[in-house]
Q: What sequence folds into this?
């Protein structure tokens, strides 16, 4: 058992003020009063006031009474108290804890300890509440009354209800590809400062489409207390593209949608999903049902799955989860998929996702590490080879991903089951996982998901914690929205992933001499059916006789497109930009990227500054920064300072100069310092390596404005004489969002 269960009713009690509803991310003072129980607390005994792993409550500190998070604790009998803020020194999921050690004395029954989180007596502004919503946010109290370091949880711990703040940012979502005359929906929400959908919207909005849309009103009203406004049964009766502006009552733009492409009889439709996250039954936030309903109703997903860590998922929860996905699965509206995360240590396979097409199947765990009931332990698969052996006859699909642990696909991989790798999540960006697959000649697709722990599947902001990236989404190309359609897209790798935006992508390979396209990988399924075709889409595997193919790309971004890189495996073929040398202005972009290493503490800190000599800074803006505590700290005509982190992803700063070709810029970071002549900066990035895992910064010159959301081009790509040609693109928007297509695999 994770904690002692010895007589919790004898261990005391705790109260909290204030309680009730508290705004996410607000600054507060909480007074928690613990009253000792029957045993008191012996000398060197202790309390722990614990919070869940993902929380960004705090930070808590004890040294500076004027600084944020100042926390105090006083014993009514004068006992000396040792205070420490601990991370991952408590049994999961209660990974963050305030340790209060009783020293040089003891507590008797009825003695109290008064803890003030965010004590303002010395000038502190308080402690910041967790930045994301949680219906029951516990201050879970554990007591080591006997001084054995064997903690007992109180029967009832105090809690608050963390609710959203007022609206700050508006978002509107359309599908990306629909059939002419087919119904679609427009979904609108407003988020608070930390990305929580707000239910404090009290206004009508004006809706202005770029082309007339049947069923779209000129104005719509949010219902009181509603988290979103959804308009169904909209139609376009002619092919084309549409974008909708959302305006306030004075005509000011609140937001605009992504672009919807409407086509006559498209081969596939687009459906957007986030299949990777978890709830508080394991390591996440809120219940599994609240998790799915957030994805459906507040993130506007078409498909969703729950991926709890297997070693923490009891059989009872697995049964409940299967009942939940069966109840919520609604073909044509919302696909709910049963599944779990196989969570072995990296040495024996690392993190894998398992998705079942039907409920009622076994959970083959990596271990029962946090499950006392060992009655089904014989079904465990302790390494990835065992897992694949267990799953070989199951109707399922697997992915490899990088979360806390990372998947070691060079140790084990099954091409019949493991269809894709996850290259982006709220943990960061992991293109190296795709490169691992290429190094072993695996044929895998690319997915992106949130791997979210904050209850915001499909719209997973990292908050103020160590997570540095916004969670991803995957677009599935399928004939219809049901499990059959989604699973066929999964097995055929027919999808592309983004860093959370909804971008339209159409990537194809034209083969003049024709190709034999296989429904399944012939290297794994020797008798895989095939068809003779002249055109291939993302994820396809085909045999060709030609020496080259025409590779075509159409991209319509949710913001202006900066560039598109085309790759053959790890080889970079070309960069297509939406601008040229003649378009450059006085805008310069500094980007940071990379990670410390592959494991859990991969986050790289880029806090630093730049100085301009011989020129002047006119304006500065940071992009791809998701933490309000980070970003620009100070700026002037000659200097800028910032706080930033990356974990394989990238972020950066745009700075506009008085003149575009004078002076020097000196960039100072914890990892490298460099001085560059501004006149030498142009279209191509000037890259400065900083070691570690592709850790670097880069500087380039951009046009003063970038407005073109559309890019379309064709190139001729050679076919390798031996081995696979693996063609895919990475699209980069000026706002920092990216997308990757599953490779098209060609061989002779």
A:
């Amino acid at each position: 058992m994770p904690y002692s269960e010895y007589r919790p009713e004898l261990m005391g009690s705790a109260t909290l003020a204030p309680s009730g509803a508290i705004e996410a991310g607000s600054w507060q003072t909480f007074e928690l009063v613990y009253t000792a129980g029957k045993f008191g607390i012996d000398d060197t005994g202790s309390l722990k006031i614990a919070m869940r792993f993902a929380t960004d409550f705090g930070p808590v500190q004890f040294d500076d009474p004027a600084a944020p998070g100042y926390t105090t604790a006083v014993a009514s009998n004068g006992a000396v108290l040792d205070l420490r803020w601990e991370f991952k020194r408590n049994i999961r999921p209660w990974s963050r804890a305030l340790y209060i050690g009783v020293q040089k004395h003891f507590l008797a029954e009825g003695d109290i300890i008064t803890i003030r989180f965010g004590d303002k007596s010395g000038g502190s502004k308080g402690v910041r509440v967790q930045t994301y919503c949680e219906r029951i946010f516990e201050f879970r109290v554990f007591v080591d009354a006997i001084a054995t370091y064997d903690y007992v949880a109180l029967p009832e711990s105090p809690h608050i209800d963390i609710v959203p703040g007022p609206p700050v940012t508006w978002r509107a979502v359309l599908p990306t590809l629909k059939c002419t005359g087919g119904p679609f929906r427009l979904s609108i929400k407003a988020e608070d400062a930390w990305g929580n959908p707000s239910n404090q919207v009290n206004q009508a909005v004006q809706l202005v489409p770029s082309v007339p849309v049947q069923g779209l009103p000129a104005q719509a009203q949010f219902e009181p207390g509603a988290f979103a406004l959804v308009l169904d049964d909209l139609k376009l009766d002619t092919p084309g593209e549409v974008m909708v502006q959302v305006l306030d009552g004075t005509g000011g733009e609140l937001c605009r949608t992504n672009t919807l492409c409407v086509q006559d009889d498209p081969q596939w439709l687009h459906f957007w999903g986030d299949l990777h996250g978890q709830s508080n039954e394991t390591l996440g936030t809120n219940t599994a049902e609240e998790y799915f309903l957030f994805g459906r109703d507040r993130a506007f997903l078409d498909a969703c799955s729950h991926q709890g860590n297997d070693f923490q998922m009891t059989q009872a929860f697995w049964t409940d989860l299967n009942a939940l996905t069966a109840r919520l699965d609604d073909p044509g509206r919302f696909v709910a998929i049963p599944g779990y995360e196989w969570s072995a240590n990296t040495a024996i396979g690392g993190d894998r996702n398992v998705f079942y097409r039907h409920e009622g199947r076994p959970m083959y765990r990596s271990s029962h590490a946090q499950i006392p009931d060992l009655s089904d332990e014989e079904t465990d698969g302790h390494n990835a080879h065992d897992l694949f052996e267990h799953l070989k006859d199951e109707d399922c699909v697997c992915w490899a991903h990088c979360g806390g642990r990372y998947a070691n696909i060079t140790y084990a991989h099954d091409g019949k089951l493991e269809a894709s790798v996850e290259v982006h999540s709220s943990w960061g960006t992991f293109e190296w996982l795709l490169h691992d697959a290429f190094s072993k000649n695996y044929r895998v697709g690319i997915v992106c998901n949130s791997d979210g722990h904050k209850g915001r599947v499909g719209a997973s902001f990292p908050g103020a914690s160590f997570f540095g990236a916004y969670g991803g989404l995957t677009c599935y190309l399928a004939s219809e929205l049901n499990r059959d359609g989604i699973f066929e897209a999964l097995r055929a790798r027919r999808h592309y992933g983004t860093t959370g935006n909804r971008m339209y992508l159409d990537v194809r390979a034209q083969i003049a001499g024709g190709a034999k396209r296989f429904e399944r990988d012939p290297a794994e399924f020797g008798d895989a059916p095939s068809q003779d075709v002249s055109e291939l889409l993302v994820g396809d595997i085909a045999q060709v006789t030609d020496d080259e193919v025409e590779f075509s790309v159409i991209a319509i971004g949710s913001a202006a497109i900066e560039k598109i890189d085309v790759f053959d495996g790890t080889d970079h073929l070309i960069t297509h930009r939406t601008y040229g040398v003649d378009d450059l202005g006085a805008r310069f972009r500094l980007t940071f990227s990379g990670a410390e290493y592959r494991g859990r503490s991969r986050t790289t800190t880029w806090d630093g500054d730049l100085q301009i000599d011989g020129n002047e800074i006119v304006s500065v803006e940071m992009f791809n920064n998701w933490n309000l505590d980070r970003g620009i700290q100070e700026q002037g005509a000659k200097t800028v300072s910032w706080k930033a982190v990356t974990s394989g992803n990238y972020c950066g700063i745009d700075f506009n100069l008085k003149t575009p070709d004078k002076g020097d810029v000196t960039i100072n970071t914890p990892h490298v310092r460099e001085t560059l002549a501004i006149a030498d900066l142009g279209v191509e990035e000037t890259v400065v390596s900083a070691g570690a895992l592709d850790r670097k910064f880069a500087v380039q010159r951009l046009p003063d404005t970038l407005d073109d959301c559309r890019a379309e081009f064709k190139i001729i790509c050679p076919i390798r004489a031996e081995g696979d040609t693996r063609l895919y693109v990475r699209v980069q928007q000026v706002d920092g969002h990216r997308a990757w297509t599953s490779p098209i695999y060609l061989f002779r």
Observations:
- Helices lie at 288-297, 315-328, 384-391, 431-439, 483-491.
